[in-house]
Design a protein that fits this description.
- By secondary structure, the chain is of the alpha/beta class.
- It has a single domain, classed as TIM Barrel (Alpha-Beta Barrel), CATH 3.20.20.
- It is built from 11 helices and 8 strands.
- Helix 2 packs across helix 4.
- It is globular and about 65 Å long.
- The protein starts with 5 loop residues before the first helix and ends in a 6-residue tail after the last helix.
- It binds 3-methyl-2-oxobutanoic acid (KIV).
- The site of 3-methyl-2-oxobutanoic acid has 11 residues, from strand 6.
């Protein structure tokens, strides 16, 4: 199903698009019913759901498994799924795997990289699958890059990021995630391209914002990224509920 019309993309520009990750049916259903516009089955599931160190161990099968569950909970949102590492090394591989994701319920796919991924984006978009780009800090390259560091701190790096954004747009992406990009550069990118920018840790001047759901609700309290202001303390609520259950079953609850 194509939920992305040129009109939606034009209207989304500058209107605060809301996007969150979702990895299971209840979360997808609650977020969809709350009115979140874009749900992403992303490879951050590696850390927040699978207990891996980074996203590089996430497979296409992992994404497909969670995508099917999320898809059952989505009525209105645009459902985007990540192409994980090494699943889009060339245009043919990219198209074949993008189609597996749409067959499992995704309305669009996302992949990481700018100028180096133009052929893949063109091929996927050309095959009729809407593509979201992702530039800036690229989690699939974390091992080469040595950590989550802000991009665009030097003029040379900023120029490359603007080129990446334009390349992604010209290749046919309908939107682009800007991850950990210096806010001034994210602002410049947002003003330089026609497709919406969706920021994460890249300041307030993007056309929309995306967060990892677990970070937003405090479900991974052992790691809170600097750019996140949790809106809930789900981790605490789970610990308290478990403690109450233990006390009830063992008969050790305090008398009130
Ligand atoms: O997988 C993910 O959560 C992502 C966001 C960081 C955009 O790609």
């Amino acid at each position: 199903m194509n939920r992305i019309t040129p009109d939606i993309v034009r209207k989304a520009k500058g209107h605060g698009i809301t996007a969150l990750t979702a990895y299971d049916y209840p979360t997808a259903r609650l977020l969809d019913e709350a009115g979140i516009e874009v749900l992403l089955v992303g490879d951050s599931m590696g850390m927040v759901v699978l207990g891996l160190q980074d996203t590089t161990g996430v497979t296409l099968e992992d994404i497909l498994h969670h995508l099917r569950a999320v898809s059952r909970g989505v009525q209105r949102a645009l459902l985007v799924a990540d192409l994980p590492i090494d699943t889009y090394r060339g245009p043919e591989e990219a198209v074949a795997n993008a189609k597996k994701l749409t067959s499992a319920g995704a309305h669009a796919v996302k992949l990481e990289g700018g100028t180096t991924r133009v052929e893949q984006i063109k091929a996927i978009a050309g095959a009729g699958v809407p593509v979201m780009g992702h530039i800036g800090m690229l989690p699939q390259r974390i091992r080469e890059e040595g950590g989550y560091k802000i991009k665009g701190k030097t003029p040379a790096e900023s120029l490359l990021l603007v080129e990446d954004a334009k390349a992604v747009e010209n290749a046919g992406a309908f939107a682009v995630v800007l991850e950990l990009i210096a806010p001034k550069v994210a602002d410049e990118i947002t003003r330089s391209i026609q497709i919406p920018t969706i920021g994460i840790g890249s300041g307030k001047h993007c056309d929309g914002q995306i967060l990892v759901f677990h970070d937003l609700v405090g479900y991974s309290p052992w790691f809170i990224p600097k750019h996140v202001h949790p809106e809930a303390t789900v981790g605490d609520a789970i610990s308290k509920a478990a403690a109450a259950f233990i006390a009830r079953v063992k008969g050790t609850e305090s008398e009130k």
